[in-house]
Design goal:
Endonuclease III, domain 1, two-stranded antiparallel sheet, single chain, mainly alpha, 56% helix, 2 domains, globular, two-stranded antiparallel ribbon, 218 residues
Length: 218
């Protein structure tokens, strides 16, 4: 593992430079939005938030579009009540989020079921989310189509340090250490490299993710 950390550290210095890009900040204090974001990001384009160019307002795309649609559905400024999400009418949630699937089930259904499962173990708001709690993790991953990677990402979006070992991060670590790695290996190597370099693990993971997504392909 020490050799992998040294190799990834050299890769980061050579490819990403000494100043890592900023982590966008997630969805602090809003468990509903973080859950929607985490699940909708599975095998999806993240897209961009709504923004204005030359006085023309451009609509959000990708995951940002789903988040914006959910906000309109709920009609409240601060969305941190997983029990309320769990009790939303299923058809209305599906209409808002669309028909994307994970593990063969609608993502909207998985989101609603995850909110219910977490509420059942007394996780009702952002403050109560603890990614290291095995009971919480088991509740989340008991939902078909959801696994430990997005459970960790859910926590990251709420401000907990972590690594979302998706395909881009796995590929970045594979390139860095010079051998194929699993999702769990990628997570461990990034966490240890972050500790070795003094970087925040979430920021380091995001920098690797962003670099791998946008680097030129030969």
């Amino acid at each position: 593992m020490d050799a992998d950390v040294a190799a990834l550290r050299a890769y980061i210095t050579g490819r990403l430079g000494s100043e890592l890009i900023e982590w966008p900040g997630g969805r602090p204090g809003e468990a509903e939005i973080a859950l929607v974001d985490a699940v909708m990001s599975i095998r999806a384009r993240y897209g961009r938030p709504a923004h204005t160019v030359d006085d023309i307002e451009l609509a959000p795309t990708g995951v940002h579009r789903a988040v914006a649609s959910y906000r309109r559905l709920r009609g409240e400024s601060h969305l941190d009540d997983l029990a309320a999400l769990a009790h939303l009418e299923a058809a209305a949630l599906t209409e808002a989020l669309g028909a994307q699937r994970t593990g063969g089930v609608l993502k909207a259904h998985a989101i609603r079921e995850a909110a219910a499962a977490l509420t059942a173990v007394e996780v009702t708001c952002a403050e109560k989310v603890n990614p290291a709690d095995e009971t919480q993790k088991k509740a989340y991953t008991s939902v078909k189509g959801l696994g430990w990677v997005t459970w960790e990402y859910f926590g990251m979006l709420l401000g907990r340090p972590g690594v979302k070992a998706d395909r881009w991060v796995i590929q970045a670590v594979t390139n860095g250490v010079g051998r194929p790695v699993t999702a769990r290996e990628a997570r461990t190597i990034v966490l240890q490299t972050a500790a070795d370099t003094g970087h925040d693990p979430t920021r380091l993971e995001h920098a690797l993710w962003a670099y791998e997504r946008t680097r030129p392909r030969s």
